[in-house]
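Review session, final week

We close the course with one last complete record, chosen because it touches almost every idea we covered. It is PF03932 family protein CutC, a protein from Parablautia intestinalis with 255 residues. Go through it on your own first, then we will talk.
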Amino acid sequence: MDNYILECCVDSAESALTAAEKGADRLELCAGLIIGGITPGIALFEQIRRYSSIPIRVLLRPRFGDFLYTEHEFEILKREAELFRKAGAQGIVIGCLTKEGSLHIPQMKALMEAAGDMKVTLHRAFDVCANPFETYEQARELGIDTILTSGQEETCLKGIELLKKLGKYRKEKGGPKLMAGAGITPEVIRQFLIQTDITCYHMSAKKLADSGMCYRKEGVPMGIPAMSEYSIFRTDGETVAKAKKILSEWRGLNN
């Protein structure tokens, strides 16, 4: 039986340490959560590792947007995989597609090779692929450990029917673990535990924290105009603790 895993997606040392303290089993480390996550700086990884031994899988995504990568972007991804492997990451989180919407097998093979003995998660590139069952089979052949997916919908709750079908396919064929993500809350985890065989859950548990700035110059956006420069995403430790409690109780009932 698969282990029950609560993975928290974080983009700061503060959020990472809160998630670890409140019971997360693993982190997905990124930068720029507000744009869906991009590759973090290696100094952020090192800072978290200095204060916590929690397993970390690092998101490798060179930019916002789709997963059709130029040769320069792909070379950057390969180099980042090597750097984070040497830095001691437990795994990487990757995904490269062709323009037709299938996995880009040569690029994925090269990244798997660069990963060495690290675990590999196929990220939500899976959710925008043309054929999820074909892509699952390709991921199995590549030796990918986990697929992070919302069931090809905006949220995993909307995609639960596909996730059920993929779970059945995995039970029959074997292959990567399925990790539900997008819209995960403690209550959604409870629903999934009742309705599916999925044991891995990916959540950011993010909340908006107010900046410590006293002087505030308004009307000068540095990025997305709709987002205040004086609001910061942070992981909500209480949400993480509630999710962990639900998983722990369910594990106890089913062991």
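Two points worth writing down before the exam:
The two ends are 10 Å apart (CA to CA).
The helical segments are 13-21, 42-51, 71-87, 105-115, 132-142, 160-173, 186-195, 237-253.
Good luck, everyone.
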